[in-house]
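Input record (Table S2, row 316):
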Amino acid sequence: MSTLDNILEEINKAESIVILTHENPDGDAIGSGLALYNALKNYGKNPDIIIPEYPRTFEFLPGSDEIKKESEITKYDLAISLDCATIKMLNGFANYFEDAKVKVSIDHHSTNTMFGDYNYVSTDAPACAQILLIVLEYFKMEVTKDIGTCILTGIITDTGGFKYSGVTAETFEFVAGLLNKGINVSKIYRKVLQTKTRANFELTRIAADRLEFFEDGKIAFTYITKEDEESVNAENGDHEGIVETGRDIEGVEVSVFIRQTDKGCKVSMRSNEYVNVSDVCLLLGGGGHIHAAGCTLQCTIEQAKEKILRQLKGVI
Ligand code: 5GP
Ligand code: MN
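Output record (guanosine-5'-monophosphate complex):
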């Protein structure tokens, strides 16, 4: 029996199912979560999806008004984690996962630690949502227009609008299938990639002003503090995309962006061609993908900057 057969068997058996994803959820995390949530509901199940906080950009997604912040159920029959590389990344709601009778991880991170009883991890997929499309088809669960909207949102956000290197001919074939269902790609694109909140614009402006270059312009570095976020009344997700400002400057190979949070310095790294930032972040206790990765460092911004630059100097 394949892993997917096992997972379907567990879905059939389970009376209570919870869907979880990573902290600071992005479009792929929320899109994948809601795609599975809607599919399981249509299949006759009554799953919960728990995401304590997420950017309001994604409130247009079908099913988002049913997202729970917490649950009275503590021991689910089945927990499914999506787009999440480690138990630690599940963060505040790891208990729902750890306490569940059966645990499943569906993901596309090469740094996935295989923390489920069943792991369906495909590192070639540019988005977890693309894997879900394969999974739902295997389960013979119909990909409705609503489900397709969630999946396409995941694919669009994690591929930066079909421009990252993980995009394959298969991605476009999948997307063509979704468009045939009448999904409005241009509306999703505008909502999730083009439109910025005012606070996001203000934070980007602050970060751009502070941006420094190192190693002959191959490294771009910037940061925002808690005070910066307070000063612009930032909401969840308003820091998204700032790391791309440095990445997109000619000559830059690695862009580093630090965001100060209650848990420490949340580091985002992006590379353009040859540096594997996932490896760099693994050495710093994090992980991610070859060209997009992150970690959290418990120190001041200045100390974090030094640690990161030291690591990068060896690979740049
Ligand atoms: P971002 O910079 O957008 O927060 O994250 C980029 C990628 O790196 C995402 O795929 C994210 O899941 C991963 N990532 C970010 N921070 C961490 C971390 O602390 N640990 C691990 N394992 N992955 C991370
Ligand atoms: Mn993803």
